[in-house]
Design brief:
This protein is an alpha+beta fold. The chain has six helices and 25 strands. The mean pLDDT is about 95.
Protein backbone atom coordinates (compact mmCIF):
# COMPACT_ATOMS: atom_id res chain seq x y z
CA UNK A 1 0.00 0.00 0.00
CA UNK A 2 1.34 3.38 -1.06
CA UNK A 3 -0.87 6.47 -1.00
CA UNK A 4 -1.03 10.23 -0.46
CA UNK A 5 -3.89 12.26 0.97
CA UNK A 6 -4.45 15.73 2.43
CA UNK A 7 -4.02 15.97 6.20
CA UNK A 8 -7.40 17.71 6.73
CA UNK A 9 -9.22 15.04 4.72
CA UNK A 10 -7.60 12.17 6.59
CA UNK A 11 -8.14 13.83 9.98
CA UNK A 12 -11.82 14.32 9.18
CA UNK A 13 -12.23 10.67 8.25
CA UNK A 14 -10.50 9.50 11.39
CA UNK A 15 -12.69 11.73 13.56
CA UNK A 16 -15.76 10.08 12.03
CA UNK A 17 -14.81 6.41 12.30
CA UNK A 18 -12.88 6.54 15.58
CA UNK A 19 -16.17 6.93 17.49
CA UNK A 20 -16.78 3.23 16.87
CA UNK A 21 -13.53 2.19 18.57
CA UNK A 22 -13.93 0.83 22.10
CA UNK A 23 -11.57 2.08 24.78
CA UNK A 24 -11.31 -1.44 26.22
CA UNK A 25 -11.87 -3.82 23.31
CA UNK A 26 -12.36 -7.56 23.77
CA UNK A 27 -9.95 -8.25 20.89
CA UNK A 28 -6.68 -6.35 20.25
CA UNK A 29 -7.58 -5.74 16.59
CA UNK A 30 -10.77 -3.91 17.64
CA UNK A 31 -8.56 -1.12 19.01
CA UNK A 32 -7.45 -0.56 15.42
CA UNK A 33 -8.84 1.21 12.37
CA UNK A 34 -8.94 -0.66 9.08
CA UNK A 35 -7.39 1.15 6.09
CA UNK A 36 -8.15 -0.12 2.58
CA UNK A 37 -6.66 1.44 -0.55
CA UNK A 38 -8.31 0.37 -3.78
CA UNK A 39 -8.49 2.08 -7.15
CA UNK A 40 -8.47 5.76 -6.30
CA UNK A 41 -10.28 5.44 -2.97
CA UNK A 42 -9.09 5.22 0.63
CA UNK A 43 -11.58 3.60 3.01
CA UNK A 44 -11.44 3.77 6.80
CA UNK A 45 -13.49 1.45 8.99
CA UNK A 46 -13.89 0.95 12.73
CA UNK A 47 -16.15 -1.43 14.62
CA UNK A 48 -16.91 -2.61 18.15
CA UNK A 49 -18.92 -5.58 16.78
CA UNK A 50 -22.21 -3.87 17.71
CA UNK A 51 -21.66 -0.75 15.59
CA UNK A 52 -19.41 0.00 12.64
CA UNK A 53 -18.60 3.25 10.86
CA UNK A 54 -17.03 3.42 7.40
CA UNK A 55 -15.70 6.46 5.53
CA UNK A 56 -14.23 6.73 2.06
CA UNK A 57 -12.64 9.50 0.04
CA UNK A 58 -10.54 9.92 -3.10
CA UNK A 59 -6.78 9.66 -2.62
CA UNK A 60 -3.67 9.21 -4.74
CA UNK A 61 -3.18 5.44 -4.65
CA UNK A 62 0.10 4.18 -6.09
CA UNK A 63 -0.25 0.67 -4.69
CA UNK A 64 -3.35 -0.99 -3.31
CA UNK A 65 -3.43 -2.76 0.01
CA UNK A 66 -4.98 -3.01 3.47
CA UNK A 67 -3.81 -2.83 7.08
CA UNK A 68 -5.18 -2.04 10.52
CA UNK A 69 -3.47 0.60 12.66
CA UNK A 70 -3.95 1.38 16.38
CA UNK A 71 -6.64 4.06 16.48
CA UNK A 72 -5.30 6.28 19.25
CA UNK A 73 -1.74 6.40 17.92
CA UNK A 74 -2.85 6.96 14.34
CA UNK A 75 -5.45 9.63 15.18
CA UNK A 76 -3.13 11.53 17.52
CA UNK A 77 -0.34 11.56 14.95
CA UNK A 78 -2.49 12.76 12.04
CA UNK A 79 -4.18 15.43 14.15
CA UNK A 80 -0.78 16.82 15.12
CA UNK A 81 0.55 17.12 11.58
CA UNK A 82 0.55 20.54 9.94
CA UNK A 83 -2.75 21.68 8.49
CA UNK A 84 -2.55 21.93 4.71
CA UNK A 85 0.15 19.29 4.46
CA UNK A 86 0.09 16.07 2.44
CA UNK A 87 0.32 12.76 4.29
CA UNK A 88 2.32 10.07 2.51
CA UNK A 89 1.90 6.49 3.65
CA UNK A 90 3.73 3.33 2.61
CA UNK A 91 3.08 -0.11 4.09
CA UNK A 92 5.95 -2.49 4.76
CA UNK A 93 4.15 -5.83 4.42
CA UNK A 94 7.07 -7.78 5.88
CA UNK A 95 6.35 -6.47 9.37
CA UNK A 96 2.94 -4.73 8.98
CA UNK A 97 4.48 -1.32 9.65
CA UNK A 98 3.08 1.84 8.09
CA UNK A 99 5.70 4.45 7.23
CA UNK A 100 4.17 7.91 7.42
CA UNK A 101 5.78 11.14 6.28
CA UNK A 102 4.51 14.69 6.08
CA UNK A 103 6.84 17.62 5.63
CA UNK A 104 9.77 17.10 7.99
CA UNK A 105 7.85 14.57 10.12
CA UNK A 106 8.45 10.86 9.74
CA UNK A 107 6.85 8.07 11.79
CA UNK A 108 6.42 4.31 11.78
CA UNK A 109 3.24 2.74 13.19
CA UNK A 110 3.04 -1.00 13.75
CA UNK A 111 -0.27 -2.53 12.72
CA UNK A 112 -2.14 -5.83 12.60
CA UNK A 113 -2.90 -7.72 9.40
CA UNK A 114 -6.20 -6.69 7.79
CA UNK A 115 -7.27 -10.35 7.53
CA UNK A 116 -7.69 -10.41 11.31
CA UNK A 117 -10.27 -7.60 11.23
CA UNK A 118 -13.92 -8.64 11.56
CA UNK A 119 -15.84 -8.50 8.27
CA UNK A 120 -17.82 -5.29 7.84
CA UNK A 121 -20.53 -5.03 5.20
CA UNK A 122 -20.10 -2.24 2.64
CA UNK A 123 -22.97 -1.49 0.29
CA UNK A 124 -24.76 1.22 -1.64
CA UNK A 125 -28.26 -0.24 -1.84
CA UNK A 126 -30.91 0.94 0.59
CA UNK A 127 -34.62 0.44 1.16
CA UNK A 128 -35.79 3.87 2.35
CA UNK A 129 -34.75 7.48 2.08
CA UNK A 130 -35.45 10.23 4.60
CA UNK A 131 -34.70 13.94 4.76
CA UNK A 132 -31.42 14.34 6.65
CA UNK A 133 -32.44 17.37 8.72
CA UNK A 134 -35.70 15.74 9.73
CA UNK A 135 -33.96 12.55 10.79
CA UNK A 136 -31.33 14.48 12.70
CA UNK A 137 -34.03 16.39 14.57
CA UNK A 138 -35.87 13.16 15.38
CA UNK A 139 -32.70 11.71 16.87
CA UNK A 140 -31.91 14.85 18.86
CA UNK A 141 -35.40 15.01 20.33
CA UNK A 142 -35.47 11.36 21.44
CA UNK A 143 -32.02 9.80 22.00
CA UNK A 144 -31.24 12.02 25.01
CA UNK A 145 -34.01 10.31 26.97
CA UNK A 146 -32.70 6.73 26.71
CA UNK A 147 -31.65 4.86 29.82
CA UNK A 148 -28.00 5.02 30.82
CA UNK A 149 -28.40 1.81 32.84
CA UNK A 150 -27.59 -1.55 31.25
CA UNK A 151 -30.01 -3.44 33.52
CA UNK A 152 -32.75 -2.95 30.88
CA UNK A 153 -30.87 -3.01 27.57
CA UNK A 154 -34.00 -2.37 25.50
CA UNK A 155 -34.29 1.11 27.07
CA UNK A 156 -30.79 2.07 25.88
CA UNK A 157 -32.20 2.17 22.37
CA UNK A 158 -34.66 4.28 20.40
CA UNK A 159 -37.82 2.53 19.27
CA UNK A 160 -38.41 3.27 15.59
CA UNK A 161 -41.69 2.49 13.82
CA UNK A 162 -42.05 2.95 10.07
CA UNK A 163 -45.59 2.49 8.84
CA UNK A 164 -46.63 3.80 5.46
CA UNK A 165 -45.27 7.33 5.21
CA UNK A 166 -45.15 7.89 8.97
CA UNK A 167 -42.04 7.44 11.11
CA UNK A 168 -42.26 7.41 14.92
CA UNK A 169 -39.23 7.43 17.22
CA UNK A 170 -39.51 7.03 20.99
CA UNK A 171 -37.08 6.78 23.91
CA UNK A 172 -37.71 6.20 27.61
CA UNK A 173 -35.75 5.48 30.77
CA UNK A 174 -38.56 4.75 33.23
CA UNK A 175 -38.77 8.37 34.43
CA UNK A 176 -39.34 10.18 31.13
CA UNK A 177 -40.52 9.51 27.60
CA UNK A 178 -39.74 11.44 24.41
CA UNK A 179 -41.64 10.87 21.15
CA UNK A 180 -41.05 12.50 17.76
CA UNK A 181 -42.93 11.76 14.53
CA UNK A 182 -42.08 12.58 10.93
CA UNK A 183 -42.84 11.54 7.37
CA UNK A 184 -40.98 9.82 4.54
CA UNK A 185 -41.78 9.74 0.84
CA UNK A 186 -42.27 7.23 -0.56
CA UNK A 187 -43.29 5.18 2.46
CA UNK A 188 -43.28 1.44 3.10
CA UNK A 189 -45.87 -1.14 2.25
CA UNK A 190 -45.11 -3.06 5.42
CA UNK A 191 -44.85 -2.18 9.09
CA UNK A 192 -41.25 -2.00 10.29
CA UNK A 193 -40.32 -1.94 14.00
CA UNK A 194 -36.73 -1.49 15.17
CA UNK A 195 -34.99 -0.67 18.44
CA UNK A 196 -31.73 1.02 17.47
CA UNK A 197 -28.97 1.69 20.04
CA UNK A 198 -28.88 5.41 20.85
CA UNK A 199 -25.10 5.46 20.48
CA UNK A 200 -25.37 4.55 16.79
CA UNK A 201 -28.11 7.09 16.14
CA UNK A 202 -26.13 9.82 17.86
CA UNK A 203 -23.22 9.09 15.51
CA UNK A 204 -25.56 9.37 12.53
CA UNK A 205 -26.79 12.75 13.80
CA UNK A 206 -23.21 13.92 14.38
CA UNK A 207 -22.09 13.09 10.84
CA UNK A 208 -24.94 15.00 9.15
CA UNK A 209 -23.75 18.33 7.75
CA UNK A 210 -24.96 20.94 5.26
CA UNK A 211 -23.98 18.69 2.35
CA UNK A 212 -26.14 15.82 3.60
CA UNK A 213 -29.57 16.20 2.01
CA UNK A 214 -31.00 12.71 2.45
CA UNK A 215 -30.13 9.52 4.32
CA UNK A 216 -30.57 6.06 2.85
CA UNK A 217 -31.63 3.31 5.25
CA UNK A 218 -30.99 -0.39 4.66
CA UNK A 219 -33.45 -2.38 6.74
CA UNK A 220 -32.51 -5.67 8.45
CA UNK A 221 -32.67 -8.85 6.40
CA UNK A 222 -30.96 -12.05 7.50
CA UNK A 223 -28.88 -10.17 10.09
CA UNK A 224 -30.38 -7.88 12.71
CA UNK A 225 -28.43 -5.00 11.22
CA UNK A 226 -29.58 -1.56 10.13
CA UNK A 227 -27.34 0.62 7.96
CA UNK A 228 -27.48 4.36 7.37
CA UNK A 229 -25.94 5.76 4.18
CA UNK A 230 -24.71 9.37 4.40
CA UNK A 231 -22.74 10.00 1.24
CA UNK A 232 -19.17 8.91 1.96
CA UNK A 233 -20.10 7.61 5.41
CA UNK A 234 -21.94 4.45 6.44
CA UNK A 235 -23.06 3.69 9.98
CA UNK A 236 -24.24 0.15 10.72
CA UNK A 237 -25.65 -1.11 13.99
CA UNK A 238 -26.96 -4.29 15.49
CA UNK A 239 -30.53 -3.96 16.73
CA UNK A 240 -31.53 -4.46 20.35
CA UNK A 241 -33.58 -7.55 21.15
CA UNK A 242 -36.72 -7.42 23.25
CA UNK A 243 -40.09 -5.71 23.39
CA UNK A 244 -40.19 -1.96 23.85
CA UNK A 245 -42.76 -0.76 26.43
CA UNK A 246 -46.19 0.41 25.23
CA UNK A 247 -45.28 4.08 25.43
CA UNK A 248 -48.56 5.32 23.92
CA UNK A 249 -50.38 4.27 27.10
CA UNK A 250 -48.13 6.57 29.15
CA UNK A 251 -49.03 9.78 27.31
CA UNK A 252 -51.92 11.60 29.05
CA UNK A 253 -54.90 12.31 26.83
CA UNK A 254 -56.29 15.21 28.86
CA UNK A 255 -55.16 17.77 31.45
CA UNK A 256 -56.49 20.02 34.17
CA UNK A 257 -53.73 22.64 33.85
CA UNK A 258 -52.16 23.99 30.66
CA UNK A 259 -49.37 26.56 30.70
CA UNK A 260 -47.81 28.39 27.76
CA UNK A 261 -44.22 29.47 28.49
CA UNK A 262 -41.32 31.19 26.80
CA UNK A 263 -38.84 28.33 26.30
CA UNK A 264 -35.65 30.37 26.78
CA UNK A 265 -36.85 32.00 30.01
CA UNK A 266 -38.19 28.70 31.33
CA UNK A 267 -34.81 27.09 30.65
CA UNK A 268 -32.90 29.89 32.44
CA UNK A 269 -35.05 29.55 35.56
CA UNK A 270 -34.65 25.78 35.54
CA UNK A 271 -30.85 26.10 35.35
CA UNK A 272 -30.87 28.50 38.30
CA UNK A 273 -33.02 26.12 40.34
CA UNK A 274 -30.71 23.23 39.45
CA UNK A 275 -27.80 24.97 41.18
CA UNK A 276 -29.53 24.57 44.53
CA UNK A 277 -31.24 21.25 43.78
CA UNK A 278 -28.06 19.24 43.30
CA UNK A 279 -27.92 18.32 46.98
CA UNK A 280 -31.57 17.27 46.87
CA UNK A 281 -31.47 14.62 44.12
CA UNK A 282 -32.10 17.43 41.60
CA UNK A 283 -35.67 17.80 42.84
CA UNK A 284 -37.19 21.22 42.19
CA UNK A 285 -40.74 22.49 42.64
CA UNK A 286 -42.99 24.15 40.09
CA UNK A 287 -45.80 26.35 41.29
CA UNK A 288 -48.34 27.14 38.58
CA UNK A 289 -50.64 30.00 39.58
CA UNK A 290 -53.46 30.93 37.20
CA UNK A 291 -54.57 34.59 36.94
CA UNK A 292 -56.69 35.83 39.83
CA UNK A 293 -58.99 37.75 37.53
CA UNK A 294 -59.88 37.72 33.81
CA UNK A 295 -57.43 39.66 31.71
CA UNK A 296 -54.54 39.20 34.16
CA UNK A 297 -51.48 37.06 33.51
CA UNK A 298 -50.54 33.88 35.32
CA UNK A 299 -47.25 33.07 37.05
CA UNK A 300 -44.99 30.04 37.22
CA UNK A 301 -42.38 29.79 39.97
CA UNK A 302 -39.47 27.34 39.75
CA UNK A 303 -37.85 26.75 43.14
CA UNK A 304 -34.65 24.95 44.09
CA UNK A 305 -33.50 24.31 47.64
CA UNK A 306 -30.41 23.00 49.39
CA UNK A 307 -30.27 22.52 53.15
CA UNK A 308 -26.54 23.29 53.08
CA UNK A 309 -26.23 25.99 50.41
CA UNK A 310 -29.49 27.93 50.34
CA UNK A 311 -32.38 28.26 47.93
CA UNK A 312 -33.76 30.17 44.97
CA UNK A 313 -37.04 30.76 43.23
CA UNK A 314 -37.67 32.46 39.92
CA UNK A 315 -40.97 33.70 38.53
CA UNK A 316 -42.13 33.56 34.93
CA UNK A 317 -45.08 35.22 33.27
CA UNK A 318 -47.24 32.61 31.57
CA UNK A 319 -50.59 32.07 29.94
CA UNK A 320 -52.32 29.56 32.22
CA UNK A 321 -55.59 27.73 31.83
CA UNK A 322 -57.10 25.46 34.47
CA UNK A 323 -56.22 24.62 38.05
CA UNK A 324 -53.31 25.80 40.28
CA UNK A 325 -50.50 23.27 40.56
CA UNK A 326 -47.70 22.45 42.98
CA UNK A 327 -45.53 19.66 41.58
CA UNK A 328 -41.93 18.45 41.88
CA UNK A 329 -39.70 17.18 39.08
CA UNK A 330 -36.11 16.17 38.54
CA UNK A 331 -35.00 19.55 37.22
CA UNK A 332 -32.31 17.95 35.06
CA UNK A 333 -35.03 16.27 33.03
CA UNK A 334 -36.72 19.59 32.35
CA UNK A 335 -33.40 21.14 31.35
CA UNK A 336 -32.65 18.24 29.01
CA UNK A 337 -35.89 18.51 27.08
CA UNK A 338 -35.85 22.31 26.89
CA UNK A 339 -32.31 22.12 25.50
CA UNK A 340 -33.41 20.06 22.48
CA UNK A 341 -36.38 22.27 21.58
CA UNK A 342 -35.57 24.97 19.05
CA UNK A 343 -38.91 26.79 19.01
CA UNK A 344 -39.73 29.91 21.09
CA UNK A 345 -42.72 28.63 23.11
CA UNK A 346 -43.54 25.42 24.94
CA UNK A 347 -46.71 24.12 26.57
CA UNK A 348 -46.62 22.40 29.96
CA UNK A 349 -49.64 20.22 30.79
CA UNK A 350 -50.57 18.33 33.96
CA UNK A 351 -53.45 16.56 35.68
CA UNK A 352 -52.04 17.21 39.15
CA UNK A 353 -49.01 16.65 41.35
CA UNK A 354 -49.33 12.85 41.27
CA UNK A 355 -49.55 12.60 37.49
CA UNK A 356 -46.98 12.85 34.69
CA UNK A 357 -46.16 16.28 33.30
CA UNK A 358 -46.18 16.82 29.55
CA UNK A 359 -44.02 19.19 27.51
CA UNK A 360 -45.13 20.04 23.98
CA UNK A 361 -44.12 22.62 21.40
CA UNK A 362 -46.70 25.29 20.70
CA UNK A 363 -48.67 24.55 17.51
CA UNK A 364 -46.62 21.42 16.81
CA UNK A 365 -48.10 17.93 17.13
CA UNK A 366 -44.93 16.07 16.08
CA UNK A 367 -43.25 16.11 19.52
CA UNK A 368 -44.32 15.18 23.03
CA UNK A 369 -42.26 14.65 26.18
CA UNK A 370 -43.56 13.07 29.37
CA UNK A 371 -41.86 13.45 32.78
CA UNK A 372 -42.82 11.56 35.91
CA UNK A 373 -43.23 13.70 39.06
CA UNK A 374 -40.97 13.23 42.07
CA UNK A 375 -42.15 12.68 45.63
CA UNK A 376 -41.04 15.25 48.19
Amino acid sequence: MILSIAQETLAQGLSVVSKAVESRPTLPVLANILLEAEGSTLSLTATNLQMSISWKRSAKIDREGAITLPAKTFVDLINNLSSGSIVNMELDTSNNTMRISSGSTKANIKGIDADEYPPVTHGTQYDLEIDARLFQDMIVKTAFAVSKEESRPILTGVYTLIEGEKVTMAAADGFRLSVRTGRIEPGTSQKVELVIPARALNEVARVIDDKTKTIGITLPSKRDLVTFHLGDVQVSSQLLEGRFPDFAAIIPRSYTTSTLLDRAEFLKQCKRAEIFSRDNSNISRLYVMPPKAPGQGGTVIIAGKSAERGDTDGALDAHIEGQPLDVSFNIRYLIDVLNVIDKPNVVFESNGAEYPGVIRIQDDDTFVHVIMPMSR
